[in-house]
Each structure stands twice: as C-alpha cells, then as structure tokens.
Amino acid sequence: MSPRRNHRRAEGGPVDRDRARQGVQTVQTWNDGEWLVRGVAPTNAVKIYRCPGCQQTIPPGVAHIVAWPADGRGDLTDRRHWHSGCWKARDRRHPSGR
Q1: Which portions of the sequence form the region Disordered (predicted)?
Q2: In what order do the strands lie in the sheet with 80-82?
Q3: Is the pTM higher than 0.90?
Q4: Which residues contact 35 (CB under 8 A, 6 or more apart)?
C-alpha cells in the first residue's frame, strides 16, 4: 500500500460567474410576463435548436439559454432555446413564427 499524500491542493483561479450560473434557474420578468430561464453549457448542448428570436439554428456545442413561462401552466413543449444575445435583446427582437 502506498503512503497517504497530504498535499494541499492548489487554489483555483478566480470564479467565472457566467460559467458558474450555467444550469442555474432564474426568474426573469419581461413585458410579456415572467419566465424561468436556465443557461445551457456548451458541453450540455447536444441537439440542434431553432432560436425564436432570429430563426437561426443553435448547433450542438454552443452555449445558449432555455426559457419557459413561469406561470406553471406550460409543459415541456413550451420551452424555447434562445441564443443568449437574442434573449437579452428580446425587447427589440420578438419571437416570430409560432
């Protein structure tokens, strides 16, 4: 059996707040109501989605957000995947299509 090593681990670098928030659900209020919003990290983005803000695809491996109504009346089909920039500009970039 090898001896136990009691080395201190090196301190990590500064916390990347944006990265730490990926996957953390928040409630955001917009003109059209309250939305539950969660970040999707690039490693968790494994499917192709269409952003309702710009109608462009969000390919696998691209960080983005998923949002759905916070009123509790929706289901999984009410979730929408948005480019982060499109979501931030949604007061100027309304969903088109559906």
Answers
A1: 1-23
A2: 25-30, 33-40, 64-69, 80-82
A3: no
A4: 27, 28, 29, 67, 68, 69, 70
Q: What is the pLDDT of residues 16-59, one digit of tens each?
A: 555 555 567 899 998 888 999 999 999 999 999 999 999 999 99
Q: CB–CB of 86/54 below 8 Å?
A: yes
The DSSP line for 3-26 is PPP-PPPPPP----HHHHHBT-EE
Q: Say which residues have a Cβ less than 8 Å from residue 90's Cβ, sequence separation at least 6.
A: 30, 53, 82
Among 52, 58, 45, 55, which residue's Cα sits nearest to residue 78? 52
Q: At residue 36, what are phi and psi to the nearest 5 degrees? A: -85, 130
CA 54, 51, 34, 40: dihedral to nearest 10 degrees?
-130
pLDDT tens digit sequence for 3-21 = 676 666 566 666 555 555 5
Question: What is the number of other CB atoms lying within 10 angstroms of the CB of residue 54?
Answer: 16
